[in-house]
Design goal:
2-enoyl-CoA Hydratase, Chain A, domain 1; Pdz3 Domain; alpha+beta; 446 residues; 3 domains; 15 helices
C-alpha cells in the first residue's frame, strides 16, 4: 500500500533527525532503509563536518525533504509553519498580499495569472510576466515559498515589483499596494439580452453554493426568462476538487462528473451527478464555458464535464493542462506533505494532463494589445520542469493547432476599443448566445 510506503518515509525522516543522538538507532535505520539511504546520511555527515559554516540539523533535513519532493513533479511539496498556514488561508479565500498565482521556473518567479480585481490585476500585471526583483532586491534563485512570503504583507503597505514581460524591450517597475485579498470566488452580472455572466475566480469553500446564489440573483434581475449563461473560468487556477464537482453538478442530471485514479487504496474515486445538487438549475438554456491558458485543475474538471456531457460549448483557448490531484498528508501537528496522489479524467476518459481542455470554438482575446507576444510565451503544465507525462499520449500537432490563425478573428485591439469592446472573448460568447437557439447550443449531437 502506498500509505504504508509514506509511513515508512516519515519514519526515515524522523530517524535522520535523531541520528546524532544514537548509534544503535542508526544501525537499525541503515539495516531497514538500504544503501540508498546510506548515501543520504553520508552527505549529511560530510556537510556537518566540512561545510564552511555550521549548519543546523533542521536546515539540512528540510532541504533533503524539499529536494526529494522536487524530484517528483512541480506540485508536490513539503509544507510547515507559515507555508501550511498560507495554504489553509488560500482555501478559506482571504489573505493580505498582491493576489497572484505564481510558479517557480528555473529559479525565476513566473505569473500564471493575477486574481481578477486584485491589487496585482489593477496594477496591470499579466499572465506570463516574470518577477525579477522585490523592492530592488534580486530574487532570482530564491525559493518560491520565500519569494511569496516577501510579497505577502500588511494591507495598505507598498511593494515595488520589477517585471520582465516577454516581448518587451526593457523591464518595468510597478508599485503595488497590498490589500486584503477577499477573493470573491464568484462574481456575476446580467448582460444585454438577458444573458447571465457568472465569473468563477477560484475554487475555495462554498463555490457551488455561491454560483447557485448568483444564478438566483440573475433570474431576479432579468426582464423575463434568462436566455443563456456564460460560465467564465478564465484565469482560474483551481482549488477544491469537491467544489469543482459541486459546480458541475448544478448543471448536470446524470452521469459521471470526474474520476481520479491513483496507486493507493482509496485514491481511485468516481464522482457522479446528482450527489451534491438535484436537477439542472439552467435546464433548457444554452451555456458557454470560457477558458484560457490560466484555467487550471478544478476549472478544467468543470469545463471537461460540461463539454463531455454536451451540456455546454467551451470557448476560448486551450487550458493549462493540470490533470493531477494533490492530497494533504499530515506530518505531525504543524507540517504536511502536499503530494500528487492521483490523476483525474473527464467523463469520456480523457486525461487533462499536459494537453488540457481543448475548446470547441477557439476564440483569441483580440482585445489584448499584447496578444501576439503573450501567445508566444504562454506557459502551460507541459512547460513545467518535471511535469507528469500524459500516459495516453498527446501528439505535437494537436498541441500546435492552437497557433493556427482563424480568418474570423482579424480585428485589432485598437479597432475593438473604438467599438467599445473591452473583452472580446466575453463579447463573442454573449453574441453567440444571443443569435443561437437553446436547442442548438445545449443539445449538440455527438
Amino acid at each position: 500500500m502506498k500509505f504504508a510506503a509514506l509511513a515508512r518515509s516519515a519514519a526515515l525522516v524522523t530517524a535522520v533527525a535523531l541520528v546524532p543522538a544514537t548509534t544503535a538507532g542508526l544501525a537499525r535505520v541503515e539495516a531497514s532503509a538500504g544503501p540508498e539511504f546510506s548515501k543520504l546520511f553520508a552527505v549529511y555527515q560530510r556537510v556537518k563536518a566540512s561545510y564552511v559554516e555550521p549548519v543546523e540539523d533542521d536546515v539540512l533535513i528540510n532541504g533533503a525533504i524539499s529536494g526529494m519532493l522536487a524530484a517528483l513533479d512541480p506540485h508536490s511539496a513539503y509544507l510547515d509553519g507559515s507555508d501550511l498556514q498560507r495554504l489553509e488561508t488560500m482555501i478559506d479565500g482571504n489573505y493580505s498580499g498582491l493576489g497572484l498565482s505564481v510558479v517557480g521556473e528555473d529559479g525565476a518567479v513566473k505569473i500564471i495569472s493575477p486574481f481578477r480585481g486584485s491589487p496585482a490585476d489593477k496594477a496591470g500585471i499579466k499572465a506570463g510576466d516574470y518577477i525579477t526583483h522585490l523592492d530592488g532586491e534580486l530574487i532570482y534563485g530564491l525559493e518560491l515559498d520565500e519569494a511569496v512570503a516577501r510579497m505577502r504583507g500588511k494591507a495598505g503597505t507598498s511593494i515595488r515589483l520589477t517585471i520582465f514581460r516577454p516581448g518587451a524591450e526593457e523591464p518595468m517597475e510597478v508599485d503595488v499596494i497590498r490589500g486584503v485579498i477577499e477573493l470573491e470566488p464568484v462574481t456575476w452580472e446580467l448582460q444585454d439580452g438577458n444573458i447571465g455572466h457568472i465569473m468563477v475566480n477560484e475554487f475555495s469553500r462554498d463555490v457551488g453554493a455561491d454560483v447557485f446564489a448568483a444564478w438566483k440573483d440573475l433570474q431576479s434581475q432579468s426582464t423575463g426568462r434568462l436566455n443563456g449563461l456564460v460560465l467564465d473560468l478564465r484565469s482560474n487556477p483551481g482549488g477544491s476538487l469537491d467544489e469543482a464537482v459541486a459546480l458541475s453538478d448544478l448543471f448536470l442530471t446524470k452521469g459521471q462528473i470526474v474520476s481520479q485514479r491513483g496507486r493507493a487504496r482509496g485514491e481511485s474515486i468516481t464522482y457522479d451527478a446528482e450527489t451534491v445538487f438535484r436537477g439542472d438549475i439552467a435546464e433548457g438554456l444554452p451555456i458557454v464555458v470560457l477558458i484560457d491558458a490560466g484555467s487550471a485543475s478544478a476549472s478544467e474538471i468543470v469545463a471537461g464535464a460540461l463539454q463531455d456531457h454536451r451540456r455546454a460549448v467551451v470557448m476560448g483557448q486551450r487550458s493549462f493542462g493540470k490533470g493531477s490531484v494533490q492530497s494533504l498528508l499530515p506530518l505531525g501537528r504543524d507540517a504536511a506533505l502536499k503530494l500528487t496522489t492521483a490523476r483525474y479524467y473527464t467523463p469520456s476518459g480523457h486525461s487533462v494532463q499536459e494537453g488540457g481542455i481543448k475548446p470547441d470554438i477557439k476564440v483569441p482575446q483580440l482585445s489584448d494589445p499584447d496578444l501576439a507576444k503573450r501567445t508566444k510565451f504562454t506557459m502551460r503544465e507541459s512547460d513545467l520542469r518535471g511535469h507528469l507525462i500524459n500516459e495516453l499520449g498527446i501528439k505535437d500537432e494537436d498541441m500546435e493547432s492552437d497557433t493556427r490563425e482563424d480568418p474570423r478573428f482579424q480585428l485589432t485591439a485598437e479597432e475593438l476599443e473604438a467599438r467599445g469592446i473591452e473583452d472580446f472573448q466575453l463579447h463573442y460568447a454573449v453574441e453567440t448566445l444571443r443569435r443561437t437557439t437553446p436547442s442548438a447550443v445545449a443539445s449538440r449531437k455527438k
